[in-house]
Amino acid sequence: MAVYERGYRRYAGQLTTRGRRFLVVPRYALAEVMRGRAFLMFYLLCFLPPFAGLLMIYLRHNLAALKLLGIPLDRLRDALPIDAAFFERSLVLQGFLAFLLVVAVAPALVAPDLRNNGLALYLSRPFSRAEYILGKLAVLALLLSTITWIPGILLFLLQGYLEGAGWFGEQARVLGALFAGSWALILSLSLLGLAVSAWVKWKPVARIALLVLFFVMNGLGRVLEMALGTWWSELVSLRLVIDRVWMSLFGMAPQTDMPAGAAWTALVAGSLVCLGLLARRVRAYEVVR
Amino acid sequence: MQSAERAPAGATGTAASSPLVELDGLTVELGGRTVLRDLRASLAGRCIGLLGPNGAGKTTLLHTLLGFFPPAAGTARVFGRDIRTEAAAIRAQMGYMPEIDSFIAGMSGVRFVRLMAELSGLPPAAALERAHEALFYVGLGEARYRPVDSYSLGMKQLAKLAQALAHGPRLLFLDEPTNGLDPPARRRMLELVRTIRDGGEARLILSSHLLRDVEECCDEVLVLKAGRVAVYANLEEERRANRRLLEVEVRAADGAPAAPAFAGMAAALGCECAPGARQRLKLVLPDGIEARDMFRLAAGAGLQIRRLDYKRDSLEDIFLKAMEGDADGGV
Fold first, then answer.
1. Which residues of chain A lie closer than 8 angstroms to B167, CB-CB?
2. Measuring CA to CA, which of A9, B198, B234, B266 is 20 to 30 A from B220?
3. What φ, ψ does residue B17 adopt, rounded to 5°?
4. Cα-flanking dihedrals φ and ψ of residue B100, to 5°?
5. Do A10 and B169 touch (CB under 8 A)?
6. Distance from CA of residue A251 to its chain's centroid?
7. How does strand B47-51 pair with strand B220-225?
8. Does the beta-carbon distance from B101 to A117 stay under 8 Å?
9. CB B168 to CB A116 under 8 A?
10. Lowest mean pLDDT across A279-283, B215-219, B289-293
11. Are B120 and B206 contained in the same domain?
12. ipTM for the complex?
């Protein structure tokens, strides 16, 4: 029916499948997020480290280029070995950028909906709270994936291809570590970002709260560790916890006494708490006691 | 886009005679307080008004029917579907216009309505087409590319109505639709409600504390008081019945009150009579007797009817009676 025929009529056409309906949320949210030029610039900057890694791997396997630049291959190989530590360091750097991305994006996803009572509109449709949370999580998961495990695994596959089957076999563990470590980060950061945004309801304050939470808790963890000399005080710091998780995944010697099991437990418990907080807030209407 | 379901067919569910909402001992507790108590009614009108003073539970009832709050006891059925077990299927056939300001920030009107239609299951192209239609229909056609945040209060009300209509629901919940509207905008909103009602494509439940809004649009009314059903009345039947109820002031030629004498004559014609205030007489006319017969009767007896009113038992009367009496004293 054309728009000039202005009468109310029921819709009798095809409907989309229920299971895929939550994808409507990330489609719209991503379009809104990508409209901001500042965010777009920052997002593109997040690809610089993987690009630098790509350049390094390329140079290591291109003798002509190394000769042209006057860099001896042995010196380069000694200075920057491409091994588990290389990928772990890349993940640490990308992890920090991922945190900044969460600070930029997460508050814009949930806080305005709560502030403008938009949830009643979402939930008055055949659309559940779980689908809403899943849809918002999908936005962050997609953005964070593109700057964490996807470039990491691509670099790993390129290095394996250029280095040969022997290297690939030796470092196979890195592949799983990149994937699992990235997802541990993605889920914990996304849930934290969404939970804080849902409780604060105001974008700028939510961003400040996330920064404060991350840096203050990190500092507090270090101070407590120095003051008390116990590893459990480090559990308050997301950064120290995720670092320990990554170390265990990459099979590297930890720089802390914190057991890997404790770090995993803290990460899972923290994520569940965030999910609980989020579920409490994501309601059509709050009941005031 | 893969399509799996088809929207329910047109005319089947909108027949006004079929029960729209059945309340079966519905009790809702929120924050440790019982907000709705043992509601029992079967609502079947084309447009049902939900009336009650502030805090009576009107909005809570709508929210419970939408599945926002779980019943503590009893249940309700919408189009025969139980709200406890089939909330999503019920919501698929509903459009909801909330009372409070509700929108998705940072979006243009058309994008906002399109998003809502897609969430209801419409494919993107159909959602876009219907978003345009809905915005034109409510009168926001020219403003549809403006951000919803920048709309005036009246425009936001219309945008809320557009998002409730865009997916073509069978049942519309309108919660205080005229809140904050100036008189022309209010008239326009009520006109839209009446047009939808008369079109027969969707049935409506209109919650309001404004009796006039309900009286202008609704054919049935459910009055809530302190979380209980105070009255459930069919306004059409009430209006029909009121046409048989007269109040007359009868005097003799010298101006002396003559109500008792006239009551005797009217009773002989089969009228039920009762004395009213200020020497007036209340009459219920039997079938076949009209108001003009009263004038003939008075003239024949040399009496004068100086005043004759159709006693309008208006919605206001129904509402006031409901507020005076105990709850659950339904009409």
1. 11, 125
2. A9
3. -75, -30
4. -85, 165
5. yes
6. 22
7. parallel
8. yes
9. no
10. B289-293
11. yes
12. 0.88
Q: How far apart are CA B58 and CA B62, in angstroms?
A: 7
Whether residue B303 sits in one domain with residue B156 = no
Interface residue B54 vs chain A (CB under 8 A): no
Phi, psi of B230 (to 5 degrees): -90, -45
pLDDT tens for the 289 residues of chain A, in order = 444 556 788 898 999 998 889 999 999 999 999 999 999 999 999 999 999 999 989 888 887 888 887 877 777 777 778 889 999 999 999 999 999 999 999 999 999 999 999 999 999 999 999 999 999 999 999 999 999 999 999 999 999 999 888 888 888 899 999 999 999 999 999 999 999 999 998 999 999 999 999 999 889 888 888 888 888 888 989 999 999 999 999 999 888 889 999 999 999 999 999 999 999 999 998 777 6
Phi-psi region of A164 (alpha: psi -120 to 50; beta: other; left: phi over 0): left
Looking at the structure, do residues B184 and B301 belong to the same domain, yes or no? no
Q: Is B209 in the same domain as B302?
A: no
Contacts with A14 from chain B: Cβ below 8 Å: 3, 5-7, 123, 126
Per CB-CB distance under 8 Å, the chain B contacts of A32 are 106-107
> Residue B15 carries which side chain, given as an amino acid letter?
A
Any B CB within 8 A of A122 CB: yes
Q: Which two tokens stand for residue A28?
A: 């719209």
Residue B3: CB atoms within 10 A of its CB come to 13
Q: Tell me which chain B residues have a C-beta less than 8 angstroms from the C-beta of A18.
A: 4-5, 88, 121
Question: A289 vs B31: CB contact, 8 Å cut-off?
Answer: yes
Domain range for B253? 243-310
| C-beta atoms of A9 and B6 within 8 A | no
| Cα pseudo-dihedral A152, A157, A160, A161, rounded to 10 | -150
| Residue A115 with chain B: CB contacts under 8 Å | 105
Nearest to A262 by CA among A221, A220, A211, A213: A221
A178 CB contacts (<8 Å, ≥6 apart)?
Answer: A87, A91, A149, A152, A153, A156
B161 and B188 part of one domain: yes
- The amino acid occupying position A204 is P
Tally of CA atoms within 13 A in the half-sphere of B301 that contains its CB: 20
Residues B212 and B273 in one domain: no
If asked whether residues B202 and B286 sit together in one domain, one would say no
